[in-house]
Design a protein that fits this description.
heterotrimer; A mainly alpha (278); B alpha+beta (349); C mainly alpha (332); A: 278 residues; mainly alpha; globular; B: 349 residues; alpha+beta; elongated
Chain lengths: 278, 349, 332
């Protein structure tokens, strides 16, 4: 006699925990996101286009994405240098510097915002000497750039660090034994194997900078079309009760971020096939 | 406690882990589930334990339907391949665990629990480790504690999943004997899974040979070794020489040449001849069914193991035979071989 | 920090270089040999960069981090104390400051508490079972991480704002979500949602289900198994998740800014108060509050480092078959 047996699990509690998880997820995440989605659908494509093609919106998006990209590039380079120094070298205070890499991630954004502004303002510790050189940082796009660099620091470093640590020393020894000098080994053997991690770190820094609000709005001038970031424009539109505009900008930001991260993931996978890491 | 398993089917996607398995285990038996990886033996064990569920079929323990109960209700003791000791509890607490989580109505008082744990630790001869943590024990010790822990709940069945698989050879051998003597002391119906045929043959009362989700043969170790029912069993248990032969009209041919052995009711067609290494009778050239040149001889103890390159037949077939040392073979000698005992099975794809 | 062991000592390849050809290699090895007495602590000289290069790299790294991380941190405390300790403590004792601190603590307690509970529940469902759509579920849990804080606030405004979907209903019933504590709590819960789950899921997946299965086979119920077997094994990961969740909850600015309405004395958390005071040029007061948040961040980092070490070592290595080679002789 064949009795069909219902699917069961060896550990108990699946039904209950899944149920609770889905409920909580719905309340906290799905319903709010559905609201966003619905609002987006309320706009006709024409309206959508109108909102987005306004000069102010376009400039805000340009500033946000453009400066984020630039800042992420800086973090890519400096992050590599930093992680190299932290992993490969020993110097006094190394452990402390290793720990402080996390500060931009742990520090509340508002604190970072006011601190950076204070530092780079006309009379600030760094702002003053720069002013002497004719460079104004605070309340200009340069200020935005600096803030975005600040918050992106941990991403490249922390993403690359474990990969660099786990790198097989025998690979370098093999390269050396084959006649490669140090530069060859570093630039043709080691760095390429870090590319997937570097790209991931870059994408994370980029994505974070695009959406960043607190660290940036203090040091930015917030002048429309000049130094206004997209998140700020969203906030302004909300305060004007122009929900549709705010939603449209938000959706564009979300989509663009997803596209970027997707593209980087692709790049990563491609890089991994060309340069297998381990 | 008896176990009965009927028509068990278990699939993982398209892969049939168990394909209509039937098994009966008698009270107090020590049964081995033997087979290569992927044969379904661990899956079967876990289904009996209640850690996995079949897609179809019945499991009865002592006549009752067991599938209605989860692992915590079946009262079986399970010993995992990697011990699964609770890493943050001492040895004592590990063994006491099963007794301490019993519902209040049934739970014994602390003093009784303590006494029982001590009794079990004495049984496995590790009472001096009571306050250590699992990470401080060797593999062999961990396995014995895992066993003690499973026995603490006085299970009606003991299930062991490759209990010695993660241990090195010497420890494995010792624990095998230890398990056998333990079983003869406590007589709990036990099933253990192994891929090591030596282990199964040495320890178990009965052996269940499995392959690809099916049972190939059930029998005593002697049965399974001396009278293998299928080609798989013959090949899996003990060392076999396998030769491709043609059976037609009651005669057996190797590479066109007839061999002087009875077809023994084997069906006509392409087949395989299975002979144990030590079942080849050696004779002077020309006297036996097979003939070949000795390529290499290794002697150890009472046995000499020789590599023979068979003449006749397509290509070069090299086989290994075991022979007594009363007549030492020389490399280069031409000798003849006659299978004393053999089986012929139809060749499978 | 890993100790990279190599089976090749510094001397061996040198000998190899000497015997094989390659002018470049032998000149490199000679340069290495010259440099070795002056080398820094690293024992693997033959495969590292020349001294001056190392110096430049370290100098770049250190100066960059100093300028971008150390200085801003120092500026916070320097500005807070720029008018002395008296002014500092006075600023913190202001009623606005105190109410902001209270609100921050309240919101953090709510967010951490709820996300702890549901994080554990979600981690159990995801790590201990197999089911279709698991990747999607994990992505969903990770979502608040990848969304801009402003957008996180936006979604709640769209629901509860005056012109939101439920706005009129809420106004009619005099229920205040936005511009009140519930809104702030919701936004904070949203952004801190992933921390506990993200910290637990990989840990629980790595620990596997064997110990839980063992407990079940010994007769334990689900809850008994969780509290007696699972929880002790995940305690460091849990603390880690709670720590990060708390840090983010107390420091969240963007999302809360959008939903709070900045009503002084009522709906200002500490980060919002920092903003308000700064915009009013009350620098000492602003940085005083900021310094509290900065100290929170530093403490979080310290505890995080400690917990990371615990997580690394406390992870008892999986019963390694090679362990059995060190069999106890008194075993037999």
């Amino acid at each position: 006699m064949n009795t069909a047996v219902a699917r069961r699990t060896s550990l108990p509690g699946f039904g209950l925990t899944m149920g609770l998880t889905l409920t909580w997820l719905s309340i906290i995440i799905l319903i709010p996101l559905a609201g966003l989605f619905l609002k987006t659908l309320e706009l006709s494509p024409a309206q959508f286009w109108e909102i987005l093609s306004s000069r102010r919106t376009l400039n805000a998006l340009k500033i946000s994405f453009g400066l984020s990209f630039a800042a992420a590039c800086v973090n890519l380079v400096m992050g590599t240098i930093i992680v190299w120094a932290l992993v490969r070298y020993r110097f006094p205070g190394r452990r402390i510097f290793d720990a402080i890499v996390d500060i931009p991630f742990a520090l509340p954004t508002a604190v970072a915002g006011v601190a950076l502004t204070q530092l780079f303002a006309q009379k600030g510790w760094l702002g003053a000497p720069l002013a002497e050189l004719g460079i104004k940082v605070a309340f200009t796009p340069i200020g935005i750039f600096i803030a975005m660099i600040f918050i992106g620091i941990p991403f490249v470093v922390r993403t690359v660090q474990p990969v660099l640590i786990d790198l097989d020393p025998e690979i370098e020894e093999a390269a050396a034994s084959l006649g490669a000098n140090r530069w060859h080994t570093v630039f043709r053997v080691i760095l390429p194997s870090l590319i997937p991690a570097l790209l991931t770190g870059f994408a994370l820094a980029f994505a974070r900078a695009v959406g960043e609000y607190g660290s940036v709005i203090f040091i930015a001038g917030n002048l429309p079309n000049v130094s206004e970031i997209a998140p700020l424009l969203i906030v302004i539109r909300l305060s004007e009760f122009r929900y549709a505009d705010a939603t449209a900008i938000a959706v564009v930001m979300l989509l663009a971020s997803f596209v970027i991260i997707f593209a980087v993931n692709r790049l990563q996978r491609w890089a991994q096939t060309r340069i297998p890491a381990h | 406690m008896t176990i009965e398993v009927k028509n068990i089917v278990k699939r993982f996607g398209a892969f049939a882990a168990l394909d209509n398995v039937d098994l009966k285990v008698g009270k107090g038996e020590l049964l081995a589930l033997l087979g290569p990886s992927g044969s379904g033996k661990t899956t079967l064990l876990r289904i009996i334990a209640g850690l996995d569920w079949p897609d179809a079929g019945e499991v009865r323990i002592d006549g009752e339907d067991a599938l209605g109960h989860g692992a915590s209700e079946r009262h079986v003791g399970f010993v995992f391949q990697h011990y699964a000791l609770f890493r943050h509890m001492t040895v004592f607490e590990n063994v006491a665990f099963g007794l301490r989580v019993q519902p209040r109505a049934v739970r014994k008082d602390e003093a009784t629990i303590r006494a029982r744990v001590k009794e079990l630790l004495d049984l496995v001869q590790l009472d001096w480790l009571a306050n250590r943590y699992p990470s401080q024990l060797s593999g062999g010790q961990r396995q014995r504690i895992a066993l003690a822990r499973a026995l603490a709940i006085e299970p009606r069945i003991l299930l062991l999943d490759e209990p010695f698989g993660a241990l090195d050879a010497k420890v494995r051998k010792e624990l095998r004997q230890w398990l056998r003597s333990l079983h003869s002391e406590i007589h709990v119906t036990s099933i253990f899974v192994t891929h090591d045929q030596e282990e199964a043959l040495e320890v178990a009362n009965r052996v269940v040979v499995m392959d690809k989700g099916r049972i190939e043969q059930i029998g005593t170790p002697g049965d399974v070794y001396d009278n293998p029912a299928t080609a798989f069993v013959h090949g899996f248990i003990g060392e076999s020489i396998v030769l491709p032969v043609e059976v037609s009209g009651g005669s057996v041919r190797l590479g066109g040449r007839p061999l002087n052995i009875a077809a023994d009711g084997a069906a006509s067609g392409a087949s395989k001849l299975f002979v144990r290494r030590h079942d080849m009778q050696i004779g002077p050239a020309g006297t036996g069914s097979l003939e070949g040149a000795v390529r290499h001889v290794r002697s150890f103890g009472p046995i000499q193991r020789a590599e023979i390159a068979l003449t006749g037949g397509e290509g070069k077939t090299v086989i290994e035979i075991d022979a007594p040392r009363d007549r030492e073979l020389q490399a280069g000698e031409i000798i003849s071989l006659q299978p004393r005992r053999y089986r012929i099975f139809a060749a499978q794809e | 920090m890993s100790t990279q062991t190599s089976f090749v000592t510094p001397e061996a390849p040198l000998k190899a270089y000497a015997s094989t050809a390659g002018a470049a290699i032998s000149s490199l090895s000679r340069r290495e040999a010259r440099e070795r007495p002056r080398a820094l602590a690293s024992p693997k000289d033959f495969r590292t960069e020349p001294g001056p290069v190392r110096f430049v790299i370290v100098a770049l790294a250190v100066s960059f981090l100093t300028i971008f991380v150390v200085l801003p941190l120092v500026v916070v405390f320097a500005s807070a104390l720029s008018k002395g300790f008296g002014a500092y403590f006075a600023a913190l004792a202001e009623p606005e400051a105190l109410s902001a601190i209270r609100l921050t603590l309240l919101v953090a307690a709510i967010s951490v508490g709820l996300n702890l509970l549901f994080g554990v529940i979600a981690a159990w469902a995801i790590a201990k079972f197999d089911f279709p759509g698991k990747t999607f579920l994990v992505t969903l849990i990770d979502l608040p991480f990848s969304v801009s804080p402003v957008i996180s606030g936006l979604v709640f405004v769209l629901l509860f704002g005056a012109q939101g979907y439920w706005g009129t209903w809420l106004q009619a019933h005099n229920v205040h979500i936005l511009f009140a504590v519930p809104g702030i709590a919701l936004a904070t819960i949203f952004v801190t949602f992933p921390f506990v789950a993200r910290s637990l899921i990989p840990l629980m997946q790595e620990q596997g289900t064997q110990e839980e299965e063992a407990a079940i086979s010994l007769g334990a119920s689900g809850l008994q198994t969780f509290f007696r077997v699972t929880l002790p094994n995940i305690k460091w990961g849990l603390l880690y998740g709670v720590l990060l969740c708390n840090a983010r909850a107390m420091g969240e600015f963007g999302a809360v800014s959008v939903v709070s309405g900045h009503i002084r004395g009522e709906t200002n958390t500490m980060p919002l108060l920092v903003e308000i005071l700064y915009n009013e040029y009350q620098f000492v007061a602003s940085f005083a509050i900021a310094s509290l948040l900065a100290m929170l961040a530093l403490i979080t980092l310290v505890v995080k480092t400690v917990l990371e070490q615990r997580l690394d070592e406390g992870q008892t290595p999986r019963d390694d078959p090679r362990d059995d080679l060190r069999d106890d002789p008194s075993d037999h």
